[in-house]
Write a structure and sequence with these properties.
Layout lengths: L1 H4 L9 H13 L8 E6 L3 H10 L8 E6 L9 H8 L4 E3 L4 E2 L5 E3 L5 E5 L2 E5 L10 H13 L3 E5 L8 H9 L3 E5 L8 H8 L5 E3 L1 H14 L15 H15 L8 H15 L4 H10 L1 H11 L10 H18 L6 E5 L6 H17 L5 E7 L2 H9 L1 E3 L8 H7 E4 L2 E4 L1 H4 L2 E5 L11 E6 L8 H14 E9 L12 E5 L4 E4 L13 H6 L19 H13 L2 E6 L4 E5 L17 H4 L2 H17 L3 E10 L2 E11 L9 E8 L9 H98 L2 E6 L5 E4 L30 H11 L3 E6 L5 E10 L5 E10 L1 H17 L4 E6 L4 E4 L1 H7 L3 H4 L10 H16 L11 E5 L5 E13 L2 E10 L1 H19 L10 H17 L5 E6 L12 E3 L11 H4 L8 E3 L11 H8 L3 E9 L2 E10 L7 H16 L16
Parallel strand pairs: 1-2, 1-8, 2-5, 3-5, 8-9, 9-10, 11-12, 11-17, 12-16, 17-18
Antiparallel strand pairs: 4-7, 6-7, 13-15, 14-15, 18-20, 19-20, 21-22, 21-25, 23-24, 24-25, 26-27, 26-30, 28-29, 29-30, 31-32, 31-35, 33-34, 34-35, 36-37, 36-40, 38-39, 39-40
């Protein structure tokens, strides 16, 4: 007990004021056993649950399992509602879960809940909807699992669910708390639980929480004896037994120390007391606590057909044998000691009744059901049981042996006729006799070996030869092995063993001392330890056994106070309620004499003796002398009579004459006495008749009361209808609340949806609590996945083990933040952080996924831009559709466009119009098989600037795979000068080649016309000029005539030279106009150049000496054309052409045939 003395003796503190202290004490409890609190509730229970959890410390160190009656056809939001007012994690049980401290677990709809190996298990409902007893089911499972660390709480609700579960928890030494019916919206369940008499406290829900916290801080599991195996102090323990015996009349001193200590420590824990001496002082001051401790010792653990295998054996092996052994006119007698509330007794009665029905027989069956708990006997006599017994009794038996009355089942008359319930203590009261079966289950287990031996001797005495004894699953007859043999070892069923000589059990005498006022202990007297007898007591006891006759001490009314010797030959138990009146217990041929002798001795205060009385017994005729005499000395409370049974030599045996004379005198006295007895009997009968008339009047009054009760029940029915209407109103209110909740939930979801951030909430078990709709694009989630582990969920992210990341965060308590990619190439920022409650406790994990694809594109754009700016060439990046994505500064300078102007425009804008279609086709072919193409031969094309000017560009192409798809990287280098030089060289060579034309062959106008036309065609076709024309002056010197020859001119310009061109003619030198599209002068030439497709013009005069004969006009596409290298061969050509017009061959313009 040393470890208990350090604990506080305070009553449960107010959590609002002493929360830190409560947390510290709960956390510092040395015991590692987890207290599991089962909470059962039904109608009106939500308000009580809220009040309870608002006062419950979230660090209490206990686990809570909430079992509520739920609609099986609708999804439950109970866990969400409880989560609002509980600071602990609240979780609906959707699969097998390990129970953890400081957690709340909620039963789901349409399932039963059990606990095994500290894991909650879900099962299919055990019965139809209106017959389900989910609270009883879980409470029983909890009692078997947690035993003395189980706590059962019954809150508001209708019906009786939870009542049987309360019995199971209490039977295992657990704590039972029941809501005060005055505070319950519906008091059916609380009242039914209270009616069992097993509630440790009846409290309001908020007070329950405070009381439970105090209990958890002081409790130690399992309750154990102090070091050495002995109580804290034998003197104190014996004082405690004396207090119990003086108030209750029952002696528990021979019960096992472990059992007694556990029960005492439970009461000490509930009262916040640390030492037994303090507890004894409380007992002395509080009779109610003595009564509570006594009830704690009375373990009411019973149920219908408990251990079905045992009852199957009774039905197949024992009961048929009893019926076979007994003749139809013989009575079957059964005794069930410690019957508690009667379930086992009625179970045996049902078995016997069913066998008799099968045989078609009617027999007298008498079942004696006894217990020392009057409250339990009252329940057994009433035979009214909650509807929750449907889990133990089959439908057929319920219909056959019970009457249904609203929410209860009442035992029928057929079983009641077989039963007698009586208060009886097997330790101190005489046993019954001539029994065929004694069923005493789970009583001997709590007794020491000495007491077990004594009680087994009583059972041996009470049983007939070869009759049966049924014990509990942990009990044997090892304390009296010579009295019984094993009939079925597995089921602990034994058979009475016959003895060669009669031996009667020694009946206890504690009742005598109690009734005579000697049960107390004189102050200052030292109590002997371990009940060790003195030498004097041993000697006197031996002499009494050898020489003292059988005797009984009775009071004036004939009630037995003390028994000595073998009374079985003179007394026996009779049918009916157990009674300790000696006249009722005496054999028939002794009862009248015994009653008369007691009455006479009590009246005269003198000895009364009846001699030579003959008694019929199992062993023949027995002759005795009956003496009744007042006890010598003064009794402190009431007078007592000593009844002596003295065996004498029977009549007919040798004896002297004096003996015969005495017998004759006795016969005369006997006759006189019988006459007096007859007169007295008549008086008794008259009195009985008057009492019966009185009873009849009382019965009539009872009938009237029952009629009144029936009217009250009808009124109650109307009230229930009214309550039903109120419930409809409440239901409407709840629907309104649900709508508000739905709106609030919609607001939350819309908020999270509008942020476009995928969010998943997980609990500490890594189960899905909630998720935003947008996250379903990445993680495959549906509404049905709520409650599922994250390990069961798949997603579209690449190279991401989401469960492992969550586990890492829970282990390290550090967030994880990284970029991840999905199967479509979209990028997200994955962030996994801890979810903390209001009090900063870790409640789970939050997973968020933010789309960062645009951010990454921006980063890549910046990277591309940086790389582009470092390139020595003009760079253009376009997508697969040919849209320009970005260009660098060198490209801006080269093309004259800004990056902003070109972004998103087709790349063909950088190519002259006449080549755009061809460029698009080339680009499409490149995309069919993209590859790197470096600058070089064949990769030169004509490019166009913003101002329309053109240049030669050499191109390199490179495909680039990015998150945005494939891009084409184009590097452009201006190679116009190189290209121009090549073109000039080619053109010059061609012009020199055209010098080989047979100009000298021109001998007349016809030949001259052909030559000129051929020359123009060759200049366009071979030299690459866009247009070529020759204009000759007429005799008046005018040059505005149509061209004498041309190639490439539009039709409308063939008949008359364009004025813009005519304006250039007149100079005797060569006239060259370059860069026409961009020049500010010669603006009249720009429209013509744009229309005809040329960029430069050269006019070479045809002269003979100083005489100008005409003009050779050439148009080149290139704006840079007609450099000096190009003009030199053109001058040579123009001179040779002039040679055709020498003086000998001078001819008029009209003589040349125009083409």
């Amino acid at each position: 007990m040393k470890n208990r003395q350090k604990r506080s003796t305070e009553v449960a503190p107010d959590l609002t004021e002493e929360k830190p202290k409560a947390e510290h004490e709960a956390a510092s409890r040395k015991d590692d056993r987890l207290i599991i609190v089962g909470i059962g509730a039904s109608a009106g229970g939500l308000e009580a649950i809220e009040a309870f959890f608002q006062q419950m410390d979230p660090q209490s160190g206990m686990a809570f399992v909430l079992v509520q009656h739920l609609d099986p056809n609708h999804k439950s939001i109970l866990s969400e509602l409880v989560g609002r007012f509980s600071k602990m994690p609240v979780q609906e049980v959707t699969q097998s879960l390990r129970v953890e401290a400081n957690h709340v677990y909620v039963i789901p709809p349409n399932r039963d809940l059990a606990i095994l190996n500290n894991r909650l298990q879900l099962l299919d409902p055990s019965g139809p909807r209106h017959l389900r007893l989910s609270i009883d089911y879980f409470f029983r499972s909890l009692a078997q699992e947690a035993r003395d660390s189980a706590v059962g709480i019954v809150l508001s609700g209708t019906g009786t669910d939870g009542t049987l579960g309360v019995r199971a928890i209490k039977g295992e030494g657990g704590l039972v708390l029941v809501q005060d019916p005055a505070t319950a919206a519906y008091d059916g369940m609380p009242r039914s639980a209270i009616a069992t008499g097993l509630a440790d406290a009846v409290l309001q829900p908020a007070e329950m929480a405070r009381q439970l916290l105090a209990y958890a801080r002081n409790a130690t599991f399992p309750y154990t004896l102090p070091a050495g195996g002995a109580p804290e102090s034998l003197d104190e323990r014996e004082r405690l037994f004396v207090l119990l015996r003086s108030q209750t009349g029952h002696d528990f001193s021979l019960y096992k120390d472990a059992t007694i200590t556990r029960r005492i420590q439970r009461r000490m824990t509930i009262n916040g007391i640390d030492t037994e001496s303090d507890f004894i002082r409380l007992l002395q001051k509080s009779p109610s606590e003595v009564d509570a401790l006594w009830k704690e010792f009375l373990i009411r653990v019973t149920q219908f057909f408990r251990d079905q295998e045992v009852f199957d054996a009774l039905g197949t092996d024992v009961i048929p044998e009893l019926l076979k052994r007994k003749s139809p006119d013989e009575e079957i007698r059964i005794w069930v000691p410690a019957c508690s509330t009667g379930e086992e007794v009625y179970s045996i009665a049902m078995l016997i009744h069913e066998h008799l029905e099968d045989l078609g027989e009617t027999r007298d069956v008498q079942i004696f059901a006894t217990d020392i708990d009057q409250a339990a006997l009252e329940v057994a006599r009433a035979g009214i049981y909650p509807e929750s017994i449907i889990s133990d009794v089959s439908k057929e038996r319920l219909a056959r042996f019970f009457n249904k009355n609203k929410s209860a089942y009442i035992v029928g008359k057929e079983l009641r006729r077989m039963l007698v319930f009586s208060s009886h203590d097997v330790i101190k009261d005489p046993p019954f006799s001539r029994m065929d079966l004694v069923s005493c289950r789970n009583l001997l287990i709590y007794m020491k070996t000495e007491l077990q031996s004594r009680v087994l001797g009583l059972f041996h005495y009470a049983l007939n030869e070869n009759s049966y004894l049924l014990l509990g699953s942990s009990e044997t007859t090892s304390a009296a092995q010579d009295l019984f043999t094993e009939f079925n070892r597995k089921l602990h069923l034994y058979q009475r063993r016959p003895r060669s000589e009669a031996r009667y059990p020694r009946l206890p005498y504690s009742g005598f001392f109690q009734s005579m006022g000697l049960s107390g202990v004189v102050k200052g007297t030292k109590i002997r330890r371990n009940n060790e007898p003195t030498l004097r007591e041993v000697t006197e006891g031996a002499l009494l056994e050898l020489y003292a006759p059988t005797c009984v001490v009775v009071d004036d009314a004939g009630n037995m106070l003390y028994v000595h010797g073998q009374t079985g030959r003179f007394l026996e138990a009779t049918t009916g309620e157990a009674n300790l009146n000696i006249a009722r217990l005496a054999r028939k041929d002794l009862s009248i004499h015994l009653s008369a002798a007691i009455r006479e001795a009590s009246a005269t205060k003198k000895e009364v003796c009846y001699r030579s009385l003959r008694l019929e017994g199992n062993s023949g005729v027995l002759t005795i002398d009956l003496r009744v005499r007042p006890l010598p000395g003064k009794a402190p409370q009431r007078s007592g009579l000593l009844v002596l049974f003295e065996e004498v030599t029977p009549r007919g045996q040798p004896g002297d004459a004096e003996t015969t004379q005495v017998a004759d005198t006795a016969l005369l006295e006997r006759t006189t006495m019988l006459e007096q007895e007859l007169a007295s009997t008549r008086e008794v009968l008259q009195t009985a008749n008057e009492e019966l008339q009185t009873s009849n009047e009382e019965l009539s009054s009872t009938v009237e009361e029952l009629q009144s009760t029936n009217e009250e029940l009808l009124t109650s029915q109307e009230e229930l209808r009214s309550v039903n209407e109120e419930l409809l109103t409440v239901n409407a209110e709840l629907e309104g609340k649900l709508e508000q909740l739905a709106e609030a939930n919609a607001d939350k979801e819309n908020l999270l949806t509008s942020t476009e951030v995928g969010t998943i909430f997980l609990d500490l078990e890594k189960r899905i609590k909630w998720f935003s709709p947008i996250v379903t694009k990445i993680v495959y989630l549906i509404e049905g996945d709520i409650g599922r582990p994250v390990e069961h969920i798949s997603h579209r992210l690449k190279d991401v083990d989401l469960p492992a990341v969550v586990e890492q965060v829970l282990d390290t308590l550090a967030p994880v933040d990284r970029e991840v990619c999905d199967e479509d190439g979209s990028w997200y920022n994955l962030r996994v952080t801890l979810y903390r409650t209001e009090n900063h406790a870790i409640g789970g994990v939050v997973v968020t996924l933010s789309d960062i694809s645009e951010v990454r594109r921006a980063k890549q754009f910046a990277l591309f831009h940086k790389l582009l700016e470092s390139s020595p060439d003009a760079t253009v990046i376009a997508d697969a559709g040919g849209q320009i994505f970005m260009i660098n500064k060198r490209a801006e300078a080269l093309f004259g466009w800004s990056a902003k102007e070109l972004k998103g425009r087709p790349v063909e804008i950088l190519v002259p119009t006449r080549f755009q279609l061809q460029h698009r086709q080339h680009r499409e072919r490149f995309l069919e098989a993209p590859r790197v193409r470096t600058m070089g031969l064949g990769n030169t094309l004509k490019c166009r600037r913003k101002d329309g000017s053109e240049f030669f560009g050499q191109i390199s192409l490179s495909p680039i795979e990015t998150e945005m798809g494939m891009l084409v990287y184009s590097a452009v280098r201006d190679v116009s000068e190189q290209q121009q030089a090549e073109q000039v060289l080619q053109r010059t060579n061609r012009i020199y080649h055209m010098e080989q034309l047979d100009i000298a062959a021109c001998t007349g106008p016809e030949q001259n016309g052909k030559l000129l036309r051929r020359l123009c065609r060759e200049m366009v076709k071979r030299a690459g000029y866009t247009q070529c024309w020759i204009s000759l002056k007429n005799g008046k010197g005018s040059s505005a005539l149509p061209p004498a020859a041309q190639a490439g001119l539009p039709k409308k310009s063939r008949s008359s030279l364009d004025p813009a061109l005519s304006a250039l003619i007149g100079s005797n030198g060569v006239t060259v106009v370059r860069d026409i599209p961009t020049r500010t002068d010669h603006s009249d030439l720009r429209p013509l150049a744009q229309s005809w497709g040329f960029g430069a013009v050269a006019l070479l005069p045809l002269m003979k000496g100083k005489l100008t004969l005409g003009t050779l006009g050439l148009h080149a596409e290139e704006s840079w054309a007609f450099g000096d290298n190009e003009l030199d061969p053109l001058r040579v050509l123009s001179r040779r052409l002039t040679d055709c017009f020498n003086e000998k061959k001078t001819m008029k313009t009209s003589e040349i045939k125009l083409s």
